[in-house]
Amino acid sequence: MTADQTQKAERPATPLASPRTSGPTLSLRPTRFGLAFLLLVTLTLVGCINYGLSLGYGLTFLLGGVWVMASTGVARAARQVRLSLSAPIEASAGGEALFTLSVTSTVAGAVTVNLKSSAGDIRTVTLRVAAGEVRTLTVPVPARTRGPLTLTASAPAALDFLGLWAAGLAAPLPVTVNVAPAPETNAPPAPPRTVPGLEGSHSRTRGDEEFAGLRPYTPGDSPRQISWRHVARTGNLLTRETDAAQGQVRLLDWADTGGISGGDTEARLSRLAAWVREMDHAGLPFALKLPGAALAAGSGETQRLAALTLLAGVSPFPPATPPARLKLLAATDTDALRVTLLALAFTLVPGVLRQPLWDSALVAGLLTYGAFRTRRPLSMRPLPAIPTWLLGVVAGLAAVGLNATYGTLLGSAAGTALLGLLVALKTAESHGRRDGHLLVLLGLFVASTHFFHGQGPLTALHAVLSAALLLAAASRWTAPTRTDLKESSRENEADLPANLIRSGGLLALAVPLALTLFVLFPRPESPLWQLPVQGGASTGLSNEIRAGEYSNLAQNRAVAFRADFTGALPPPDQRYWRGPVYEAYDGQSWKQVRIGGPSASVEPLAGRAAWNYTLTLEPSGNPWLLALDTPLQLPQGAFLTTAFQAVTQRPISARRRVTLESRPARLGVSENIQRLQFDLSLPAGQSPRAAVLGESWRGLPPQGRIEAGLDYLRQGGFSYTLSPPLLPAQDRVDAFLFGTKQGFCEHYAQSFVFLMRAAGLPARIVGGYLGGEVNPDGGYLIVRQQDAHAWAEVWMQGQGWQRVDPTAVVAPARVNAGLSTALTQPQAQAAAAATSLSRLGLRLDALQNRWNDLVVGYDGGQQQALLSRVGLGGVGSAAYLAVLPLLLGLALLPALWWLRQGARPRDPAARALHDLTVRLGLPRAPGETPSAYAARAAAARPHLAPALDEVVRAYQVARYAPGDAAEALKTLALALRKVKR
Fold first, then answer.
1. Which secondary-structure segment (H or E) carries 467?
2. What number is the average pLDDT over the span 81-90?
3. CA–CA separation, 918 vs 912, rounded Å?
4. Rounded to the nearest 5°, which phi and psi values hold at 528?
5. Concatenated DSSP letters for 21-74?
6. What value does the mean pLDDT take over residues 268-272?
7. What pLDDT shows up at residue 629?
8. Peptide bond into 688 cis (omega under 30)
9. Is 208 part of the annotated catalytic residue set?
10. 450 belongs to the catalytic site
């Protein structure tokens, strides 16, 4: 059984063993978990650099700050901890020797120590200790053979709250117990031999018949022999001595064991041990005679222990039995595992919104099964663990299912779904502290992967709360309950709310350091490697267009991007955000095409104002930058295609801010002949009526052909709708122009392009977005997926590519008033007034845009601009390198101050005494009373002896005496002022 005994530091503590140690070995080092934690921070930092995850930087630096902050108080706490070992009074071969480990500390913390016996058994013990507590823990060590058994403590260390850092402690001296032979089972009775030559004598010897006097207490005396009346009167432990007639003393003689078969020494010693136990149970005095040694007559506990010690020391000793090489599972702390499962469940919740239903159900089932296993009462049979082979099969099948769902396992969607499932599978086989630490690290990594899918304030809040929960779980694994040590007392274990508050406080202390690194850490613009992070279908525009796709997008109010202009906003009829250009037509769909040859010309129009703006692009999985015509200045890593489309070198997999400059220009006056020929082609046999209609306009001038096509749409009874009838696979354009006459923008764009090509003009479809909602709170445009639009481009000799929007002639409100107004009032010239709900939504969006500007969009360009404004030049400059260490040091000051304040006692009198020890630079030892401390301080500084005596008297009055506590504290404060260092 384990005993946890708490004792106030002001009271003198009775030492459990010699207080001497092998010398101080104070050193600070990261633990294995601390090194793994640092590796996790490094990996997430590399991922943030490669994928440009701004919030990922924030979480990474916050965790890095936790790693640093955890080390700040460990060394100071280690100076307030003392360890001691004590050996058991007795132990028998074949049983267990119950050694006692004692930890004394004036501050709260955790301690770990490796214990190794001379027989080769090794055990690592980790336990928590409260402030001002003496905690004892009984450590059973196998005693397989007779003889001395020594227990040695090595690598003792104080741990921080999370178990990331260890500060070395002074190791206690080894202790030894003499293992006595195991008593023989069913041994014959001891021979009725008495001490020779004393039968019938009137002399007396030690026995239990009559009172003979009092003597000082010695360890091992039976509590029944202590004179408690004298203890109550004098405070000293005294033991009653009794005697008996000498002739009644039994003699246990080695010679009487000679009849044992084979004369085995250990067997003979076992029989003598059985006889010693027989005499002790009967309360009879006895003497012991061995070859070359003898024990005088006596009785009681002292005599029994002396006899067993004598038997344990008989040489030669039997050969040592090595410990069995068994694979033992680490002890499981069900409470720590339960908290870890709760933290992981909270961390994995966002995946439910984007993963397949079967995957989320499987993850929930695994976590629920693990929770039921931890809550199973001890009286019931535990639920069986899931076999490892079955977990492997489930992982393989899940990988196949995710690959079928997303088309890859390398993308962010499939990768994060698979990672969450693997973490859930790991929980099914986790039991020990190492597994618990691994689950915590995996959970923190999963929290960082959520930024692939969003970097909004709610995602950031969820990541911080997940980190707090996971760190609270890690603290529970710092000193898990050791069922193999038969620990029964749980009084010192903190509950989850207390651990959560403490982990949250540690995160708060790390905020200044994290903010400093977030602002000043270099932000590379180019990735370290190229790897797709978006799997499966993406939201928004696609590489091809067919009738009905843009009408589906029109029902999606998700934000595609936001545009913040430096000056005035462009007029509504100029808000065409250019995306993919579709030129290849097979009769059913339009696709992008890559045509070689020289690039077309771009001629900016003189006298036309330029638009300078910043786009905040939402993740789309596509490399397109939705720019106004025509982008002349692009961000680093972007370029303009031969179809005048701005693209980047890698897909937009996370929210990204880019700054552009556009200016009206004439495009393609000098165009590639091959492209123009390609943009005249039509699929043979498709829509013959439309082809005939377009050919009938070939006699008109180019602009007249365009006007003829627009007039046909304007006067032909066409309507603008989100739910047009389905078109057949064959002759789609004919079915629309001469049949349904109901369509969305893609219907009008593809029909018009078809007519222009039939009329002999090169034409193509341009996809993108039209318009945008003006947010008056931020003065920027919100462009949503429902603003997706398709229009036509027609090439004319000497003028180049001209934008023509056939939808505008059917529903002018689509250009001037927006989609919602165009669907109900196609001819409207302005949008309807905003409602109260929409205005609230715009205010929230303004906050979101501000968040994107300050946090999500903080990249290398913004960092360079900030450093230039404050006079640091840039990353790597002399000023930058000089200021960075200073700012990092300042970021640590709040944490150091807070930890220093936390080390002070809460009691005013105890706090005053603590401040005195700090002023004198002489720490108070664990368990040292104020009087003993004052005596030690006076010995070091004799001139302070009178003042220190006055402090002690004032302290005792303030702490224990009745009366006005405030007045007593004032007296203590005056006494402290008289102590000059």
1. helix 457-478
2. 91
3. 10
4. -75, -30
5. BS-----EEE-HHHHHHHHHHHHHHHHHHHHT-HHHHHHHHHHHHHHHHTTTTH
6. 92
7. 84
8. no
9. no
10. no
Whole-angstrom Cα distance, residue 251 to residue 288? Answer: 6
φ, ψ of residue 515 in degrees (nearest 5) = -65, -40
Q: Report the 10 Å Cβ neighbour count for 973.
A: 13
Catalytic pick among 745, 747, 787, 853: 745
Confirm if 71 and 28 have CB atoms less than 8 A apart. yes
Torsion of CA 930, 935, 939, 941, to 10 degrees: 50
Confidence at 840, pLDDT banded by 50, 70, 90: confident
C-alpha dihedral sign at 346, 350, 352, 356: negative
| Cα distance between residue 900 and residue 762, in whole Å | 77
What is the rounded CA–CA span in Å between residue 521 and residue 884?
9
Lowest mean pLDDT among 20-34, 191-205, 726-740: 191-205
805 catalytically annotated:
yes
Complete DSSP assignment for 209-241: EEEEEEEE--TT--GGGB-HHHHHHHS--EEEE
Which of the following is catalytic: 462, 734, 789, 853?
Answer: 789
Using left for φ > 0, alpha for ψ between -120 and 50, and beta otherwise, residue 714 falls in: alpha
What count of other Cβ atoms lies within 10 Å of the Cβ of residue 619? 21
Q: What pLDDT score was predicted for residue 900?
A: 67
Using CA atoms, how far residue 122 sits from 90, 99, 169, in Å, is 21, 13, 19
Residue 318 tokens read as: 């039997």
Per-residue pLDDT band at 220 (split at 50, 70, 90): low
Tokens in use for 549? 């796709």
Cα gap 798→791, rounded to integer Å: 21
Backbone dihedral angles phi then psi of residue 205, each to the nearest 5 degrees: -145, 180
Per-residue model confidence as pLDDT tens digits over 468-478: 999 999 998 98
Residue type, 943: H
The least confident of 32-41, 265-274, 534-543 is 534-543
Q: Does residue 483 register a pLDDT over 90?
A: no
Q: Which of 121, 359, 805, 845 is catalytic?
A: 805
